[in-house]
Amino acid sequence: MPSRNHLMLRSAQRARLEARATAMQLLLAAALLLVANAAVRAQNPDKQAFEVIEHGRYMATAADCAACHTATGGQPFTGGGALETPFGILLAPNITPDVETGIGGWTDDQFVEAVRTGIGHGGIHLYPAMPYTYYTKMTREDVIAIRAYLDTVQPVRNLVQANQLPFPFNQREVMVGWNELYFRPGEFKPDPGKSAEWNRGAYLVEGVEHCGLCHTPKNAMGGDENSQAMQGSVLQNWYAPNLTGNRRIGIGDWTVEDIALYLKTGRNSYEIASGPMADAVTHSTSHLIDADLRAIAVYLKDLPPGGSEPTQPVSAQDPAMQRGQAIYNERCAACHTVAGVGIVGLFPRLSGAPLAQQSQATSLIRVVLEGSRAVATDGAPTGPAMPSFAWQLSDADVAAVVTYIRNAWGNAAAAVSASEVANLRQTLHRQAQAP
Amino acid sequence: MRHVGNLKGQKQPFGNPFEGTRSRPYPTPAQKQPYGPVLWAEAAKEMGYSPFPQPSGNLSQAYTNPLGVTLGPCTYCGFCERFGCGNYSKASPQTTILPLLMRRTNFEARTECEVTRINLDNTGKRATGVTYVDTQGREWEQPAEMVFLCAFQMFNVQLLLLSGIGQPYDVNTGQGVIGRNYSYQVTSSVQAFFDNKIFNPFIASGAIGMCIDDYNGDNFDHGPYGFVGGGYMGMVQPNARPIEVTPTPPGTPQWGAAWKKAVKDNYLSTILPATHGSCYSYRNCYLDLDPTYKDRFGRPLMRLTFDFHENELKMSQFLTDRLAEIVQRMDPRQIAKLPRTGHYSIVPYQTTHTCGGAIMGTDPKTSALNRYLQSWDVHNLFVTGATAFPQNAGYNPTDTVAALAYWSLDAIHKQYLRTPGPLVPA
C-alpha cells in the first residue's frame, strides 16, 4: 500500500489535479478535432508534457496500480505487494523507473504490451493477477500516459521475485493455454447505441477499474465466468458482492447518485465500504472526478439483474434462528438496531441489505470474527469500526447469528453452518500467524 | 425539543432559565429521561423551581457534525460515565475531531508517549520544545516553535513546576503563582429508598437527568444563609453498574446475608440525586512538588494540600437540605441526607473536577497566564484546561475549558501568529 504521506499528498492535491484532469480531457477532445495527424500524436503522446503526465497519474489512480505494486508500509510502486491466488502467492513487481529492478529499461511498446496483453519484458507470460485481461480494453494513449507518469516516480532499486507459485503453476508457459481459453484481447469498442457517458462508464468498469476481477465469479482455472459477470465472487476470503441490477442481492435499488456517492465517499444511505473495497475507495475511486464516477454508475445501473433467485427464508422457528436472534439482540442490536435498519453513515443496514443475502456469507462471517473498520474519506471521515467477536462467540454462535441476519426482517439466504465458520476461522488464524 | 433555556436573549420553555444567551439551539434534542428524573422534575416544578434536562455530550439521535464526523444514538447502557463509548454516542475528541485531523498531512499524534518537561532556551523566556519518553523508555526531544500544554489540570501544574516555568507558589509568603489558587468541587447527595417504585437505574447515560439551577451563583438571595456561591442539583442517572452500585438503607449490616438481601430489595427502587457546588480558592489550598514521593521517571509527584472551608460546608448543607425537600415530595419510604461534612479525604471518590494551579489573570504577580492563556514568562507557551480557573464555579468545567481554548486560539490566530510575543504587556 502507498505510504500514508503519499496518500495524504494525493488527497490534498486532488481537487487541483482533478480540475487539471478535466481540463486535460477537454484538451484531448479538442485535439481530436484538429489536424489529420492528431490521431498519430495521441497514439504516441509527448511523455514530457505536463498534461500527459497528469493524465497518467489519474489513470494510474483509476487503475489502482499502487494497490498491488506496493508492499505493506513500502514506497508506492516499488513492488512486493502479495496477492493470494487460489494457486499460490504472487508478488507484484517493482514498477519504478529503476533500470535493473524496475521498468526503467523497458520501451513504451514493451510496457503497453505487458499491460494490455500480459506479455512481459523478455517475452515472459504474466499471470492474470495482473489484470491485463481487463487492461487490454485500455487505449494505447492512456497506457502510455501511465508510463509517462511512472517515469516521473523516484527510481528505487528493489528486486522482487514475483513468481512464488508452486509447481506446476510456477511454469509461466501454462499461461499460453490459459490465455487461449480465457483471455479476449482487444481495445474497448464503444457501443454506438449507448450514450457517451455509458461508454465512458463501460470503459472504466470493464477496463481501467477492473471491477470484475473481484466481482465476477471465477472458474476452477481462475478464468472469468462471463455468463455470470458481476454477480459476486469470493476472493482472498472476502465476498465481493453482486453489482448487477438485482434488487435483492445486487444494487438494483441504488440510484446513479447513490453509486457515485458510495465510490466518492465510501458510504451512502445503504452501505459503508470495508474490507478490500475500503482499499479500492481509499486508493482509487475517491480520487476520480465526479463525471467518471457518474459514468461508472450509469453503466452499472444498466447491468441486467443477475444472480441467484430468491430462496425461501430459514424459518423463524428454526433453532439456529432462535439462537441467532438471541445473540443478535444481545450483541449486535445496540448498533445495527433490533429492526436491523442500522444508522446511516455509521452502522450498516442489515434488513433488506444485499450484502446480507449474497449466495455466500464469507464477508459476513469474516466481519463477525475479525471485526472491521469502514473506510474513511474526506467526504466521510468517521471510519467507524466494529469489534471482533471471535473471542466471545463459538463457531455455532457465529453460524446462528449470521443465519439470523440473513433470514430476519424479510431477508432470505442460505443458512450458515458451524463448520463453514470453523474453516474460515482457521484460515484467518493461519493468515494472521503467517510471516 | 432542543431544551435551550435562552435563545438570543429570549427565555425558552423547558430549558434552564438562568443560563447565558445561546445563538442557536442544541444540534440534537435532549435524551429521553428515565423514570426517576421525570418524577424528580415533577416534584421540583410543583415546588416552583424550573427543572430542565441536563445538557450533555450524549447523543439522542445520529448526528453528523460540521466537520463531517458522524455520531450515533446513545443506547442508554450506563457505562460511558467512566468508560469509552462503543457506539460513537459520546462526544469526545476521538468521536468528533481526531478522525478528521488524522487525515491532515500536517497532523501527527504520537500515542503512548509522556512529556517529561518543556524545554527552554538560555534566556528562559522561550520554549524550544518538549522532551518525552516512549513506551520503551527512550527519551526524545521534539523541537517546537510553540508549545500547548493541554494535559489534565494536575499534570499541567506538575509540568510547569518540573520545567521551571513561573515562580512556584510559597504558602508561607503567599508569593509565587504556580500551584496557587487550587480549588475543588463540592458535591453532596440525598439517597432515597422507595417501596412502590421501580426506577430501572441501569437505564442510564453519562449525564442524563433533570436539574435545577435555582440555587447557583447569584440566581438566589444569599442574605440569610451565611455563605457565598452555590450549585446546581438534580436527579441524574449516570449508571447502576453491578458491584459498584449496591444501595442499602442506613443501618444495614456491611456484609453477609442481610446486606445481600438489602441490596436486592433496594437496587431497583433507590435514587441518588446530587448537588454540584462551587469551591473558592484559599491561601492554604495549593499544589506543589512532593518532597518525598517520585514517579517512575524519578520526578517528584504532585502534592495536593486541601481541606474544605466553612463557606463550602455551609453551602453544601444548604444545597443538600433544599434537594432533600424536593426528594421528600416524591414520597420515599426513607431518605439519607449526605452533605459534605468534616475534613476532606481523597477517598472515596467525589469528583474529577479539580481546578486552578496556574490561573489566568491580569497581574503576573497573582496569575500564571494572561487572559489568552499565554504564560506570562514564556510567550510561546499556552496552557489550556481548568488549570486556568481562579475559582471553581458551580458548574462542571468542561464547557468553560473548551470556550477558553477557542478564545485563546482566536487570539493566537489573529494576533500571535502575526507578531509572536506577549499578547498582554506584563
How is this structure best described in words?
The complex is a heterodimer of chains A (435) and B (426). Chain A has 435 residues and is mainly alpha-helical. Helix content of chain A is 43%, strand content 5%. Chain A is built from 17 helices and 7 strands. Chain A has helices at 4-32, 38-43, 50-62, 65-68, 108-117, 132-135, 140-150, 174-182, 196-208, 212-215, 256-265, 276-283, 290-301, 319-336, 362-370, 395-407, 418-433; strands at residues 82-85, 88-91, 163-164, 233-235, 238-240, 372-373, 385-386. In chain A, the strands form 3 sheets. A 3-stranded antiparallel beta sheet of chain A has the order 1-2-3, with no helix packed on it. Chain A has a two-stranded antiparallel ribbon with strand order 4-5. A two-stranded antiparallel sheet of chain A has the order 6-7. In chain A, strand 1 and strand 2 (88-91) form a beta hairpin. In chain A, helix 5 packs across helix 7. The two termini of chain A are 17 Å apart. Residues 1-21 and 26-40 of chain A have low confidence and may be disordered. With 426 residues, chain B is an alpha+beta fold. Helix content of chain B is 19%, strand content 20%. Chain B contains 7 helices and 20 strands. In chain B, the strands form 7 sheets. In chain B, strands 3, 11, 12, 13, 14, 15 and 18 form a 7-stranded antiparallel beta sheet that branches. Chain B has a 3-stranded antiparallel beta sheet with strand order 6-7-8. A two-stranded antiparallel sheet of chain B has the order 1-2. The longest helix of chain B has 20 residues, at 310-329. Chain B is globular, with a radius of gyration of 23 Å. Chain B starts with 5 loop residues before the first strand and ends in a 10-residue tail after the last helix. The A-B interface holds A 5, 8-9, 11-12, 334-335, 343-347, 376, 378-384, 387 and B 62, 64, 67-73, 75, 77, 86-88, 99-100, 102-105.
